[in-house]
Design brief:
The protein is of the alpha+beta class. It has two domains: about 40 residues; about 55 residues, Roll (SH3 type barrels), CATH 2.30.30. A hairpin with a 4-residue loop joins strand 2 and strand 3. The relative contact order is 0.14.
Length: about 120
């Protein structure tokens, strides 16, 4: 087996091909762990960046990637901010959100200018 350090990092197709071909089976667990760590770090950065642009009382709109789909384009006001979630009070209660309060990931919200 070829050592993982011999594979060109700048060529992800070659690395993926080596994984598929079984050439990196001895290092597969370490690769999975590294990919998971990196994926979580990227997701955390996206959440933190999205959260940093929001504030309690800010007007927001649900992005076109929000689920359930009937939330897409819905507007409301931020009532609470947590480490990973935002609580939005909808302008109009929708679907299963009869109270009008929705807990959502900050990446699914777009700020609205009230000017």
């Amino acid at each position: 087996m070829t050592s993982p350090s011999c594979w060109p990092i700048r060529d992800p197709d070659a690395l993926a091909g080596a994984v598929v071909a079984g050439q990196l089976d001895d290092a597969l667990g370490a690769l999975i762990d590294a990919i998971n760590l990196r994926t979580h770090a990227i997701a955390r950065h996206r959440r933190d960046t999205a959260l940093a642009r929001l504030a309690i009382g800010a007007r927001v709109r649900f992005a076109n990637t929000a689920k359930p789909q009937y939330l897409r384009g819905a507007t409301g006001e931020i009532h609470e901010l947590y480490e990973d979630l935002v609580v939005v009070c909808l302008d109009q209660p929708l679907g299963k959100f009869r109270s009008g309060h929705v807990r959502v990931s900050p990446e699914l919200l777009e700020g609205l200018d009230d000017s």
